[in-house]
Design a protein that fits this description.
The chain is mainly alpha-helical. It contains 11 helices and 5 strands, in the order H-H-E-H-H-E-E-H-E-E-H-H-H-H-H-H. The protein has helices spanning about 10-15, 20-30, 45-50, 60-65, 90-100, 130-135, 140-150, 150-165, 175-185, 190-210, 220-225, and strands at about 40, 70-75, 85, 115, 120-125. The protein has a 3-stranded antiparallel beta sheet. Strands 4-5 form a two-stranded antiparallel sheet. A hairpin with a 5-residue loop joins strand 4 (about 115) and strand 5 (about 120-125).
Length: about 240
């Protein structure tokens, strides 16, 4: 058909079982406006008009898409002052790496170094370590290696921040959270565990926390070392009467 447009959708979105029909319509609309870098700038009115979703309901749906890490919303960052949206395609690599850590495999073997890419995505940097050397690594040596290079705390924190669930429109101060994150890493906490906890907490928040104000601020979450409570993916919410 002449003039027909198409949208690019991430595998993460396709595999997500918790997206509603409204979520999908809003996601498809934003994806339809995205450029090759995955950036899109449709206004709320445009999204509401194309999808049939009430304009006042669009922000809530966008927050859900952020919580599922399908996209990122940067308020006022568009050239015209509107919201800018970035579709997330590359963090599947990070999830694969985190799943590797969950299974107990050696993160050094699988390149479990996560950096913050210039385009806002994340990528895995492979690190080759021979088997005899790996067997000699102590926990202290591994933590020292994690904290030593690539301005690690900063890069790991940005990855953590992308995974942590959004509290919009409520406050979630970034600077205090960064300080808590850096303090944890200095104490020897594996940043991979913190990122994994944030990823699982975001999944938990998306399916169990109905109002964004009840999501802990990242500062409080880090101060209470809540990553220890979220090292495993959350249990799916049980079906209620009327859901089937």
């Amino acid at each position: 058909m002449t003039g027909e447009r198409f949208a690019r959708i991430s595998e993460r979105a396709i595999r997500c079982r918790d997206l509603s029909a409204v979520d999908w319509r809003v996601l498809a609309c934003i994806a339809l406006h995205a450029n090759v870098a995955g950036r899109a700038y449709p206004g709320m009115t445009t999204i509401a008009e194309m999808t049939g979703v009430r304009r006042q309901d669009v922000p809530r749906t966008i927050r859900r898409l952020e919580q599922f890490r399908i996209l990122r919303c940067d308020p006022g960052a568009a050239p015209n002052g509107a919201n800018a949206y970035t579709l997330i395609f590359e963090d599947d690599e990070v999830s694969a790496g985190l799943r590797t850590v969950r299974t107990g495999a050696d993160p050094q073997q699988h390149g479990q170094g996560v950096r913050n890419g210039a385009d806002g995505g994340v990528r895995s940097a492979a690190t080759k370590v021979s088997a005899p050397v790996r067997t000699k690594h102590t926990k202290e040596q591994t933590n020292k290696h994690i904290c030593a290079g690539l301005d690690e705390s900063a890069d790991w924190f940005e990855t953590f921040w992308r995974y942590y669930p959004s509290r919009k429109p409520h406050d979630n101060p970034k600077k205090p959270a960064r300080l808590k994150f850096e303090a944890a890493v200095k104490r020897g906490i594996d940043p991979t565990a913190i990122v994994r906890g944030a990823e699982n907490y975001a999944s938990y928040a998306a399916s169990h926390i109905r109002r964004a104000e009840f999501i802990k601020t990242a500062e409080v979450w880090l101060n209470k070392e809540c990553w220890n409570d979220h090292q495993q993916p959350p249990e799916p919410e049980p079906l209620r009467a009327g859901m089937i």
